[in-house]
Every structure is written in structure tokens, then in C-alpha cells.
Specification:
480 residues, elongated, 22-stranded parallel beta sheet, Immunoglobulin-like, mainly beta, six-stranded mixed beta sheet, single chain, 2 helices
């Protein structure tokens, strides 16, 4: 085939193809307007200096012809706290954008708010302005910002009290020195950034009240993050810590709610009194204790990716009127450990990364009274000794979920007055674990165990009917 014939075969179809393409006719009528998927883009409350998540909306061309968007701009210009990205490009002003018939483009928006020198939550507003065919249209941008006490690598080396004037935001860590104490007043809200940790070498006093509980959680305030675990690291009570107390507190969405540990070689036993507290949605454990002394009452430890409560190697533990109930969603991860774990050994690594096995720890005591130990697995209580030693424990007047082939509790004199494998019928899983009116835990506790804790987690009396209910909550609503 000659070159002329070849060019004819190639060029003629190409010319035919391009001649068939529709003309880029633009609608210019002043009545031709853009459409948007929303008229106002709202951002949840965000802390100043911390950026929001990225939100988005679409601008649409509802017409049968192309439309020319003359300009898209932030009304606040360079002074705006908002930032926009138009169809993949970042900036404050965009010109001469063509939008095909019945097509759309994405507008992405985020914001970083400046400190406002106020303890109040303030409303910040701007808008994105669209100009096309002489029309000016806009989409409002609205965010709420709150100032915080910002803590980046904070060290407390003297006795310190945090008042409830505005929230506290820990970016990386807060360290309380061994000779210092941190006291947290009622109503304080403590937010922790990703991987942030509170490390206590001295003493921690969290003094929430029934009316003004203290709150610990992640710093993402958008609704999407309300039930997402693993947003921050942990509250760590080290071996040298002492006289630790947490009351009327909520701890949510971290990796470990409270870790209290001392190495066997140290001879130390850090202590914690924790009461009227909820720990929920931890990606590992709610309470992880190793060689520690912990007393808990009116305590709820809920959904965790590992055990809700893990008591390891040795220690002295007393839990009364507690609810350990693990309904960890499989959508997060596959939980393999029970709600409550007692074991007299553990494995760690030395400074060279070589595994070290510690065995034959001694529990001075591990008592569980008028409590609920339950969850979504067939076995929610594991007692494990590396050398098959008898551990010191007591379960009295408890509702449990025990697979009898795995733990012969009926033959164990340390288990007394047990209700096993009866659903406690929580009224509001997975939030507060209050009892339904038909719960077998109602009036099933021993009054003598309740005398020291006459009020439940909600402040209701346990001693006004036939017997106290098992767990952290007393059912109120009629005669028990």
C-alpha cells in the first residue's frame, strides 16, 4: 500500500470522527444557574489549632449545554480559616471552569481555627462564592471552635490542679513526675490526640462527681468518631505511682483505658481506687493490671479488643458491684480473650528484644462480689496458671458466662452463689449496660456486699428493696 493510500485510510476516518463531536455550546442565559448538593456545609466542634476532617459537596450543571463558571472563591480570601480544593486543585480563587452538561465537580473543604481567647464555643462562618452567567451563588461554611489548654510534651513536676475552665488537649504526652501529683477537678474534659499518653510516675487524682463527671477521649469531635476505638494510647500508672484515685469518670475510645504495672524485679505495687467509672471501646484492654493493687466499685468496663479487665502475674484486687461486659464488634477485629482474664505469668522482652517469661506470680487476692462478667463469647472468664497452681480468688454472687467444659466452677469452692450463662439483658448495649426489667441480675446480690456501696453508678439506692442487683446499676422502675 502506498503512503498516499495509507494516509487516506487514517485521516479520512479521523476527520469523520472529529467532525461528529458535539460543539461545546455554552448556556449563557441568566436563568441558567448552578445546583449544589447542599446549601450549608457544617463542621462539628473543633479545637483551635487542630484541623478538621475534610468535608465535600458537589456543584452540578443541570443543563443540556456546557456552563462556564467564571469564578469560584472563598469570600474570606486569605483571612479565611477554611481551605478549599476544586476538582483536585487547591487554592482560594479559581477562574474559567467549564462544566459539561449534566456533569458535576467536587469541592473539598477543611478548616483550621485560630485561638479565640474565650472559654465559650464560638461560631465561625465563611462561604464559597460561585459566579456564572452573571449570577452569584454561594454555599455557606459553618464551624464551631473551642479554645483548649494545649499540652505538647507536658511535664508536671509539682502538685498541680486542673480546673474545669476549658478542655485540655494532650498532643503527644503528659508526664507527672514521681514527686508530683495531678488533681483533676469535676467537669474537666481531657482530649488526647492520636497515640497520646498520660504517664503517671507520681499520683493521679481524678475527682469527678455525679453531676460533673470527668471525661477522657480522643480529639476528633466529628460524630463519625463517637464509637471508634484506638484514637489515643492510654493512661499509664507506672510502678512508682501511688495513691491513685479515679471516680465519676468516663474513659472512651483509646487503646488501653488504664494500665497499672510494676515489673516483678522492682518489688513495687502501684495502687488504684477506681469507682463510679465507665471505660468503653478500647482497642486492647479497659484495665490492664500487672503486680498492682486495684479496688473497683460501681465500675463498668465494656467493649474491648482484648480482655475488658486483665489481671496479670500477681497483685491484690477487689471488685464490688462491677460490670465487665464485652460485646466487641467483629467488624473492628477478632477478639480472642475473655471479658475477664486472670493469669499468673506473662512474657516481655529485655532491652535486646529477647523474650523473658515470668511465671508463678502470686495473687494476694482477686475478689469479685455482686458483679457481672459477661459478653458475646461462650467463655468470658479465664483463670490461667502456667504451672497449674491454685490462684487465690473469690467469685461470690456473680452473674457469669462460663463454658463448663473449660472451667469446672461448680466443683470450685471459690465460686459461690453464681448465676451462669443467663443473659443479663442489658437495656442499652453498648453504651451504659443498665439492666432490663427482666434481668436475672435484679435482686440477686448479697446485701452485705452492698453496704459499703449503697448507691449505684447513677446514684440510686441499692438498699431500698429486697436485695441489691448485681453489677454497677440498680434497676429502678418498680419493685424488684
Amino acid at each position: 500500500m502506498g503512503i498516499r493510500s495509507f494516509l487516506l485510510l487514517v485521516l479520512i476516518p479521523a476527520a469523520f470522527f472529529f467532525s461528529c463531536q458535539p460543539e461545546r455550546n455554552f448556556v449563557e442565559d441568566s436563568d441558567a444557574r448552578l445546583e449544589f448538593t447542599l446549601d450549608t456545609l457544617f463542621f462539628d466542634t473543633v479545637f483551635t489549632t487542630i484541623g478538621t476532617t475534610t468535608e465535600a459537596f458537589k456543584v452540578k450543571n443541570p443543563h443540556k449545554q456546557f456552563i462556564m463558571i467564571d469564578e469560584i472563591s472563598l469570600a474570606g480570601g486569605a483571612f479565611s480559616v477554611f481551605r478549599i480544593n476544586v476538582d483536585g486543585a487547591s487554592g482560594m480563587r479559581f477562574s474559567d471552569l467549564e462544566l459539561a452538561p449534566h456533569d458535576s465537580m467536587y469541592i473539598f473543604v477543611e478548616a483550621t481555627l485560630d485561638p479565640n481567647s474565650s472559654d465559650e464555643i464560638l461560631r465561625i462562618q465563611d462561604s464559597i462564592v460561585f459566579e456564572a452567567n452573571g449570577n452569584i451563588q454561594d454555599v455557606d461554611l459553618v464551624a464551631w471552635g473551642q479554645d483548649v489548654h494545649m499540652i505538647e510534651g507536658g511535664i508536671i513536676d509539682q502538685n498541680t490542679t486542673w480546673p474545669a475552665d476549658k478542655p485540655y488537649l494532650i498532643i503527644d504526652f503528659l508526664y507527672v513526675d514521681s514527686l508530683a501529683s495531678l488533681t483533676i477537678d469535676p467537669g474537666v474534659q481531657v482530649y488526647l490526640h492520636k497515640d497520646a499518653i498520660i504517664y503517671i510516675a507520681g499520683s493521679l487524682q481524678v475527682n469527678g462527681s455525679q453531676e460533673e463527671p470527668v471525661w477522657f477521649g480522643g480529639d476528633r469531635l466529628e460524630e463519625f468518631y463517637d464509637h471508634i476505638p484506638g484514637q489515643w494510647d492510654r493512661i499509664y500508672l507506672s510502678g512508682s505511682s501511688h495513691s491513685n484515685r479515679i471516680t465519676h469518670t468516663e474513659i472512651h475510645n483509646g487503646t488501653i483505658g488504664v494500665q497499672i504495672t510494676a515489673s516483678p524485679e522492682s518489688g513495687l505495687m502501684p495502687d488504684l481506687e477506681i469507682s463510679s467509672t465507665i471505660i468503653n471501646r478500647m482497642s486492647f484492654s479497659g484495665i490492664y493490671a500487672l503486680n498492682a493493687a486495684v479496688s473497683g466499685s460501681n465500675l463498668v468496663v465494656g467493649d474491648c479488643g482484648s480482655s475488658s479487665v486483665a489481671l496479670i502475674h500477681s497483685g491484690n484486687y477487689m471488685f464490688t458491684h462491677c460490670t465487665f461486659a464485652n460485646y466487641w464488634p467483629n467488624g473492628f477485629s477478632n477478639r480472642t480473650l475473655p471479658a475477664l482474664l486472670l493469669m499468673d505469668y506473662f512474657v516481655t522482652n529485655d532491652e535486646d528484644g529477647i523474650p523473658l517469661l515470668y511465671v508463678d506470680g502470686v495473687f494476694e487476692n482477686a475478689a469479685f462480689l455482686n458483679s457481672i462478667i459477661y459478653g458475646s463469647h461462650a467463655m468470658e472468664l479465664l483463670i490461667d496458671s502456667y504451672n497449674n497452681l491454685q490462684l487465690s480468688y473469690q467469685f461470690d454472687y456473680c452473674l457469669t458466662r462460663i463454658h463448663e467444659d473449660s472451667l469446672s466452677y461448680l466443683d470450685d469452692p471459690l465460686f459461690t452463689n453464681i448465676i451462669n450463662n443467663e443473659d443479663p439483658l442489658f437495656d442499652s448495649i453498648p453504651v451504659v449496660y443498665e439492666l432490663d426489667s427482666l434481668s436475672p441480675a435484679i435482686d440477686a446480690g448479697l446485701p452485705a456486699h452492698a453496704t459499703e456501696f449503697p448507691l449505684d453508678l447513677n446514684g440510686n439506692s441499692r438498699l431500698d428493696d429486697a436485695a441489691p442487683d448485681m453489677g454497677a446499676y440498680e434497676w429502678i422502675g418498680g419493685a424488684g
